[in-house]
Design a protein that fits this description.
With 219 residues, this protein is mainly alpha-helical. The protein has one domain: MetI-like (MetI-like fold, Orthogonal Bundle), CATH 1.10.3720. The chain is built from 9 helices and no strands.
């Protein structure tokens, strides 16, 4: 009651806010780059004819998808990070990458299994080995289908990155918390932080729609 907004607090702290946004984008992009090979390997492992490999990949996917990201980040930072001396930044990157990799694995698996079985049979009948057929025939087609979902995963990863503030990474969310603690202007700061997240995710969502139209596969 009687609260008078002071929006001048935003331009006064714009440098700090921009730095936090850049850290958020940097961590999200780096985590995605690391999670893609993890997800591709796990996705291939899920459809492997080797029971040990497929079981190991399934265990990774199901376990990581069943653990909250916040718990995973805290465990990596306070447990694994202490032994490996990772620090808050790399603990956050590894946590996000491992978490996102499990979801990318399912995207890759679904993309590969969506390719008609006749494609593999035709490749094998032409003299290719299983690995050659997978590398030269199946994966190129599957990548066209999984590219838009992978782009969508970056948007999800960007929003999930707000949790890295719990392990002391000075991202956009932690910058917002610190500013609220020092200025007591929660309305102005959190509104602007929310608008920044929306602006970035909206731009990325438009890029995803472009990729969906460009790489749309007609069945």
């Amino acid at each position: 009651m009687g609260y008078q907004p002071n929006w001048a607090i935003i331009p006064q702290n714009m440098n700090i806010i921009v730095q936090g946004l850049l850290i958020t984008l940097q961590i999200s992009a780096l985590s995605l780059l690391i999670s893609i090979p993890i997800g591709v390997l796990a996705g291939l492992g899920r459809i492997s004819r080797n029971r040990f490999i497929s079981g190991l990949a399934a265990l990774y996917v199901e376990f990581i998808r069943g653990v909250p990201l916040l718990v995973l980040l805290i465990w990596i930072f306070f447990v694994m990070g202490r032994f490996l001396r990772l620090g808050s930044y790399w603990s956050a990157v590894i946590g996000l990458a491992v978490f996102s990799g499990a979801f990318i694995a399912e995207v890759v698996r679904a993309g590969i299994q969506s390719i008609p079985k006749g494609q593999m049979e035709a490749a094998r009948s032409s003299g290719m080995t299983y690995n050659q057929a997978m590398r030269l025939v199946i994966l190129p087609q599957a990548m066209r289908k999984v590219l838009p979902p992978l782009a969508s995963q970056f948007i999800i990863l960007l929003k999930d990155s707000s949790l890295v503030s719990t392990v002391s990474v000075v991202d956009l969310t932690l910058v917002g918390k610190n500013l609220v603690a020092t200025t007591f202007r929660s309305l102005e700061i959190w509104t602007f932080i929310a608008l920044l997240y929306f602006a970035v995710t909206f731009i990325l969502s438009q890029a995803v729609r472009f990729l969906e139209r460009k790489y749309h596969v007609v069945e």
